[in-house]
From TrEMBL:
Domain Glycosyltransferase 2-like: 12-144
Family per record: Belongs to the glycosyltransferase 2 family.
Organism, as annotated: Ruminococcus albus SY3
Top-level taxon in the UniProt lineage: Bacteria
Pfam families reported in the protein's UniProt record: Glycos_transf_2 (PF00535)
UniProt keyword annotations, A-Z: Glycosyltransferase, Transferase
Protein known as: Family 2 glycosyl transferase
Length: 277
């Protein structure tokens, strides 16, 4: 496909799913990727351990209907980072488009992303804005914006992930260069992004919403979960020890996470929205 005289490169969609996902959300997500204005020629879905019968039925449908749709089934739950590493081995293309199994990509997401990557070959990692919406009502909640240029991305990354993970596109060769994802069970996406940037990868964000991000009460509960809070702090300590961020960056972000953990559930969403702004 060509756009404004620029030849768009083929890409691989990489996604993982676990047994807790809702079949209707998975179906909506997969459809949103297969029905792109610039459709993928390679789609790798990693099943993170045994799934429910309902999820298996949804996946089987796509396996039979779409030649590009390929499935890797892991015998046990291994986590997002492990799934990404195993799925990357199967991906056929240099450009990898990440996707979460319950979000919805806007129709031009991949066309605009591949156009940007083709027009700016020096960019190694690309993202975009997301629109958070209430999973029950469909109501738009907030737009999560991210810095656009490489220098702003690097500065932002000292405290928070400068990319919205469901919008991420990157070069497979760069991931291989840094040794893939690490085995951290939470905050693996932030850890991955910082390691890419620290190794010299150039980042950029498209200042446009390209993915709708599903939010429900469980999202806020996970942010308040102690295991998640502890992992959040551990990853940021690792980033500080690597020299990528400073002690003040670590202190500020850790304090904010602890506040969120200690807040009552009724106030967590409000505090999170203030952080977005």
């Amino acid at each position: 496909m060509e756009k404004d005289g620029v030849r768009l490169p083929e890409y691989s969609v990489l996604m993982s799913v676990y047994k807790g996902e809702k079949p209707e959300f998975l179906r909506e997500c997969i459809d949103s990727m297969l029905e792109q204005t610039f459709a993928p020629d390679d789609f790798v879905l990693v099943c993170d351990g045994p799934l429910t019968k309902e999820l298996d039925n949804v996946i089987s449908e796509y396996e039979h209907k779409h030649e590009c749709f390929r499935v890797l089934r892991l015998p046990e739950n291994m986590g997002v980072g492990y799934c990404a590493n195993e799925g990357l081995k199967m991906c056929r293309n240099e450009y990898i488009v990440k996707m979460d199994s319950d979000d919805i990509a806007l129709p031009e997401r991949c066309e605009l992303s591949m156009y940007m990557m083709a027009k700016h070959p020096g960019v190694d990692m690309l993202g975009a804005y997301i629109s958070e919406f209430d999973s029950d009502t469909g109501e738009e909640i907030a737009v999560r914006k991210t810095p656009t240029g490489d220098s702003a991305i690097r500065k932002y990354a000292r405290r928070r992930n400068p990319f919205n993970n469901p919008t991420l596109v990157y070069k497979k060769s760069w991931v291989e260069k840094i040794g893939g994802y690490t085995t951290v069970r939470r905050c693996e996406d932030y850890d991955f992004v910082v390691r890419m940037l620290a190794a010299g990868a150039v980042g950029r964000n498209i200042p446009k919403v390209l993915v709708r991000y599903r939010v429900n009460g469980g999202n806020y509960d996970r942010r308040r979960n102690w295991a998640n809070t502890r992992s959040f702090i551990a990853v940021r300590w690792k980033i500080y020890r690597s020299g990528f961020s400073g002690l003040w960056d670590f202190t500020v972000t850790t304090a904010a996470q602890l506040v969120m953990f200690l807040l009552p559930s009724s106030l967590t969403g409000r505090f999170y929205k203030k952080l977005l702004r």
